[in-house]
Amino acid sequence: MSKPTAKDVTELYQAARQLLLNTARTPFLEKSLDRVRDALEPFEKSRLAALDVGRNDEQALYVIPNPSGYSCLGYDVCLQRHNALAAWMRSEKLQADVLPPEARGTIRGYKTYQTLLHRADNYCQRNKLRCPIELTPQLIGLEGKRVEVMDRHGERRRFIVGKSTGWLPIHLEIARRNSSGGPAGTCTPFQSVRIVA
Questions:
Q1: Kind of pairing, strands 146-150 and 69-74?
Q2: Within 10 Å of residue 109's Cβ, how many Cβ atoms?
Q3: HSE (CB half, 13 Å, CA atoms) of 190?
Q4: For residue 159, what pLDDT is reported?
Q5: What is the pLDDT of residues 15-31, one digit of tens each?
């Protein structure tokens, strides 16, 4: 038998992860796959490590490579999101530590945030939950309604409030009823929000 290629290992890893996600929806099978979960852990760690995240200290950004190029995450945004997610996990009776201010802008801080995201994702998938920390508080309960907002910069705009799918939803600004989606809500907190006909 020939040695498996990196592509073979990646495909096997992805198939095993999908099996775990599918099994998480079947409670009596989920516990029986702890050995598979344990076997995948080193691959998960190496997959995360393969993301050779860089830093741009001048702009206070993590620079994150992906197959399409790069994306960025601000140091302060990372710290705020990590601590909000940790607080939510503690409210769910799970152990999660806040990221101390001295971790701001460090690769260790970014990797700690990624690990917490992975834990929260698994928890939400297993328990069919959605974590509300990225929702705009002023728009909660207004999903499906047309609103007019004045954003933090004094700009007025109208949109239908939508909500993304997945375990960590965000509010969307949907232009019209026949639109198939929209951009994330921006320039929050809003100075004002009112429902319009």
A1: unpaired
A2: 20
A3: 18
A4: 96
A5: 777 776 666 566 566 56
Residue range 61-92, pLDDT digits in tens? 999 988 788 899 999 999 999 999 999 999 99
pTM of the model: 0.70
Q: Which residue has the tokens 């949907």?
A: 174
Beta bridge partners of 54: 63
Strand partners of residue 195: 147
Q: Which one-letter amino acid corresponds to residue 17?
A: R
Angle, to 10 degrees, between the axis of helix 107-127 and the axis of helix 75-91? 40
Instruction: Look at the chain and report how many structural domains it folds into.
Output: 2
- Token digits for 11? 């495909």
Same domain? 95 vs 38: yes
**Range of 156's domain?**
137-195
- The predicted-structure confidence for 92-145, as pLDDT tens digits, reads as follows 999 999 999 999 999 999 999 999 999 999 999 999 999 999 999 999 999 999
Same domain, 20 and 97: yes
Verify that 121 and 142 share a domain, yes or no.
Answer: no
Query: Which residues, in sequence order, are CB contacts of 63 under 8 Å at separation 6+?
Result: 53, 54, 55, 56, 70, 72
Q: State CA 50 to chain mean position distance.
A: 19
Token readout for 52 is: 């050779």
The SS3 call for residue 197 is coil
- Return d(Cα 169, Cα 181) in angstroms, integer: 13
Q: Does 123 fall in a domain?
A: yes
